[in-house]
Design brief:
heterodimer, A: about 110 residues, mainly beta, six-stranded mixed sheet, 11 strands, about 0% helix, globular, B: about 110 residues, seven-stranded mixed sheet, four-stranded antiparallel sheet
Chain lengths: ~110, ~110
């Protein structure tokens, strides 16, 4: 059973600051790691994914993956109040004939104007 | 594209009653997933269909939960003899294939009283 742990549980940052979220997973055979954003009353929305060791940058988002330490982080540059949401880390594992996503409990981010 | 459509958005049912939740995936998506989200357990995988065929239902509570996909444009999740612990947001997601980006609906909030 894949385990996905996220930290911190909640994070408050001022507008314009860098937000840094962490995720550890238990299975080194994981396929891709995904970050989803969820606003209240809405379904999760995919933000960015990474498969290979190293980093990946898209706009204000940067993801770092270290498979040896089973750790992935998400960094949001120049955080905006609209970034306030719950961020879910999800790990894709090949389960039989399909890739199954297992989600962490989330980090609640609040960006204060 | 309307995205994944879930109905009803909210449902209140009495203990022991039956609840049926509907999902219309994005047109052209061959993979349909059901997840359940609670504060305590987070997002939990329930079941997965590929090209309408059930592939994995390992997350489904065996006795009272069932899911079907009678055609490519809709899937249903049925809960018989509902219990208070079934109260949750039930999320449907679709994707082009497993391993690709999941597109979630806004969820159906079920409250069992």
């Amino acid at each position: 059973q894949e385990k996905v742990q996220q930290s911190p549980e909640s994070l408050i940052v001022p507008e314009g600051a860098m937000s840094s979220l962490n995720c550890t997973f238990s299975n080194s055979a994981s396929q891709s790691i995904w970050w989803y954003q969820q606003h209240p009353g809405k379904g999760p929305e995919a933000l960015i994914s990474i498969f290979s060791n190293g980093n990946k940058k898209e706009g204000r988002l940067t993801v770092y993956l270290n498979r040896a330490s089973l750790h992935v982080s998400l960094h949001i540059r120049d955080s905006q109040p609209s970034d306030s949401a719950v961020y879910l880390c999800a790990v894709s594992i090949l389960a039989g004939s399909f890739n199954k996503l297992t989600f962490g409990a989330g980090t609640r981010l609040a960006v204060c104007p | 594209n309307a995205g994944v459509i879930q109905t009803p958005r909210h449902k209140v049912t009495g203990k022991g009653q039956e609840a049926t939740l509907w999902c219309e995936p994005i047109s052209g998506h061959s993979a349909v997933f059901w997840y359940r989200q609670t504060i305590v357990q987070g997002l939990e995988f329930l079941t997965y269909f590929r090209n309408q065929a059930p592939i994995d239902d390992s997350g489904m509570p065996k006795e009272r939960f069932s899911a079907q996909m009678p055609n490519q444009s809709h899937s249903t999740l049925k809960i018989q003899s509902t219990q208070p612990q079934d109260s949750a947001v039930y999320l449907c997601a679709s994707s082009l294939a497993s391993g690709n980006t999941l597109y979630f609906g806004e969820g159906s909030r079920l409250i069992v009283v």
